[in-house]
């Protein structure tokens, strides 16, 4: 393993002003997104949508350091025969691959999930590297309420994340390590902070046990945030303050970059929260975005299956807003 090279890649993807485009929706998820704009989820339409994003050249060059792909996209060619991976590389962004095979129901712990995909992963990694992937993603899903998550759920998911991360680094691929505490539910921001802290502390213990080098990972956490159905919704400053407190207490400074998921926040919330953290706090890591919905919802609606220019303009705008937020230089008036 060349740790210096892994560290360089992790820093490239999360450098101030830069973030990650999560375009790795599985077949089921992309179908749901396409249903919302009445577009059929065919292989060609999925290709066209993602090609539109990757061909938004200036925004890709200026604001996007990495793109997470689904297996299908890693193998697809654009209309003119250029591999989609090449389009990403041409804009100086790094292609990555989602390698988990989804969150499955846990045995003995009803209502909780364990992410699968470790079997055969070591062999799959070799092929992904050949196809151009230089980083990977694995997402653990942690449900939250008064009693969940169980220790069993947190420990099993963090153990799997650590084993995945070790396999990635062995293959000279930077692991994005994503323990997502869901926003769904009526829990308070403090409950979210408590569970997120416990998950992150467990995660870093497991990463250490499995020999993962922290200088060569990117952490992709949720923010500490009120549950969607909580009567009291914490404001921007409280989210920023509590999220930073959790991260500072649980994420070693050796980690080069932290890139948040958006998790169902509105576009503006996701941007405002990231901005408040970068503007208000002195942080030992790069702190940026790895958004799926918060980067794609607006352009997807603008495109609606045919309007490429409108889709690209909307994507360029959101990418620019989040880039500014990654430097603490955004304000709402810039939304136009
Ligand atoms: P969202 O930003 O839509 O939560 O997606 C990010 C992601 O990659 C989840 O795994």
Gyration radius from CA atoms, angstroms: 19 Å
The N- to C-terminal Cα distance equals 46 Å
3D shape: globular
Number of helices: 13
| Biggest β-sheet: strands ordered side by side in the sheet | 1-2-3-6-7-8-9-10
Major β-sheet, in short? 8 strands, parallel, barrel
Give helix and strand order, one letter per element, not per position.
Answer: HEHHHEHHEEEHEHEHEHEHEHH
Name of the CATH superfamily: Aldolase class I
What is the CATH class? Alpha Beta
Total number of β-strand segments? 10
Mean pLDDT across the residues is 98
Poorly predicted sequence stretches spanning 5 or more consecutive residues: none
Number of domains as seen in the coordinates: 1
Oligomer: single chain
Strand composition percent: 5-15%
> Helices and strands: which structural class?
alpha/beta
Bound molecules: 1,3-dihydroxyacetonephosphate
CATH topology: TIM Barrel
Q: Roughly what percent helix? A: 40-55%
The CATH architecture classification is Alpha-Beta Barrel
């Amino acid at each position: 393993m060349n740790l210096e090279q892994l560290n360089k890649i992790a820093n490239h993807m999360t450098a101030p002003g830069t973030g990650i485009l999560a375009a790795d929706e599985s077949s089921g998820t992309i179908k749901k997104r396409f249903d919302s704009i009445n577009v059929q989820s065919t292989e060609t339409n999925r290709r066209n949508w993602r090609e539109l994003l990757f061909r938004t050249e200036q925004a890709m060059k200026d604001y996007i350091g990495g793109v997470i792909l689904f297996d299908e996209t890693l193998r697809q060619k654009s209309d003119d025969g250029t591999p989609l991976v090449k389009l990403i590389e041409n804009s100086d962004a790094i292609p990555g691959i989602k390698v988990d095979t989804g969150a499955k129901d846990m045995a003995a712990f009803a209502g909780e999930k364990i992410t699968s995909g470790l079997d055969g992963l070591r062999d799959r990694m070799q092929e992904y590297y050949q196809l151009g992937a230089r980083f990977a993603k694995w997402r653990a899903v942690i449900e939250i309420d008064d009693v969940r998550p169980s220790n069993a759920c947190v420990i099993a998911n963090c153990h799997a994340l650590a084993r995945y991360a070790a396999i990635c680094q062995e293959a000279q691929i930077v692991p994005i390590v994503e323990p997502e505490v869901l926003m769904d539910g009526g829990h308070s921001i403090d409950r979210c902070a408590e569970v997120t802290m416990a998950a992150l502390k467990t995660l870093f213990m497991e990463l250490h046990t499995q020999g993962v080098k922290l200088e060569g990972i990117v952490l992709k956490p949720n923010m500490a945030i009120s549950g969607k159905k909580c009567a009291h919704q914490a404001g921007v400053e409280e989210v920023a303050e509590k999220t930073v407190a959790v991260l500072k207490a649980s994420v070693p400074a050796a980690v080069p970059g932290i890139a948040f998921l958006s998790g169902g926040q509105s576009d503006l919330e996701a941007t405002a929260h990231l901005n408040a953290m970068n503007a208000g706090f002195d942080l030992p890591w790069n702190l940026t975005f790895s958004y799926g919905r918060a980067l794609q919802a607006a352009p997807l609606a603008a495109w609606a299956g045919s309007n490429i220019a409108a889709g690209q303009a909307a994507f360029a705008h959101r990418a620019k807003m989040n880039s500014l937020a990654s430097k603490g230089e955004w304000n709402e008036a810039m939304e136009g």
